[in-house]
Amino acid sequence: MDKKRVRLTVAYDGTNYHGWQLQNNAVTIESVLNGCLSELLGEPIEVIGASRTDAGVHALGNVAVFDTCSRIPGEKFSYALNQRLPEDIRIQGSEEVEAGWHPRRCPSRKTYEYRICRGEFPMPVKRLYSYFTYRPLDVERMRRGAAYLAGEHDFKSFCQSGSQAESTVRIIDSVQVEEQGPDLVIRVRGNGFLYNMVRIIAGTLMEIGQGKREPESIPDILAACDRAAAGPTAPAMGLTLIKYEFL
């Protein structure tokens, strides 16, 4: 029987997982999906993910594909899988795609949000999905700094060591800093992201907001092509992959 390729849109709370990618002796989003699909279909299944999010990072719309001989219609996999998956992973949609379609080999845009909870004291119900700070943040300074990040740049300074990327040049469409009540959201949209890139952007912009750096320092940070030139890597829990757009 010919195999078909099915695309899944996957939402998850990353709190209890060691990221997306398979790891020895660790539970990951990929390992759970593989296990549920293999059990459902009675054949060994290995999904291919679009974004390999880190431990503790969340997603509203990550994308994965897998190949199967099953006769189950593509759009029905979401229903079948959601009956088997744990509550912190849910398929938001499924469909059959062309046999050669690969989520990391076609033009796309990704949107990430980094959420910061500001206040005198932490808010317990937000602790898993935002980074808390009691330090005042100057939002206008952060916006001025963020504007320098838009466009095509070498983001090596915003890439954690250990990355295996062939090129550190990326195109960022926009970096927005938006106030939502006590929360501050840094929203980044681009064609691709390096290892920890959005979290380093968030950490650097927070230092600008605290007055530790000037907004106009961003071009020099980019030009340095040195991780040590940028700010700290913001904690994982504040980061969510919002959506994928395939062009």
Task: Provide tags for this entry.
31% strand, 247 residues, globular, single chain, alpha+beta
Describe this structure in words.
The structure is a single chain. This protein has 247 residues and is of the alpha+beta class. The chain contains 5 helices and 10 strands. It has helices at 29-41, 77-82, 139-147, 197-209, 218-224, and strands at 4-12, 48-49, 58-68, 89-97, 108-118, 131-133, 151-154, 169-180, 183-190, 239-246. Strands 1, 2, 3, 4, 5, 6, 7, 8, 9 and 10 form a 10-stranded mixed beta sheet that branches. A hairpin with an 8-residue loop joins strand 2 and strand 3. It is globular.
Order of helix and strand elements from N to C terminus: EHEEHEEEHEEEHHE
Q: Report the major sheet.
A: 10 strands, mixed
Mean pLDDT: 96
Instruction: Please tally the helical runs, counting DSSP H or I stretches of 4 or more residues.
Output: 5
Which runs of at least 5 residues are low in confidence (pLDDT < 50)?
none
How large, in whole angstroms, is the Cα Rg? 19 Å
**What structural category arises from helix and sheet content?**
alpha+beta
Number of strands: 10
Overall 3D shape:
globular
Q: What share of the residues lie within helices?
A: 10-25%
Strand content: 25-35%
**Termini gap:** 31 Å
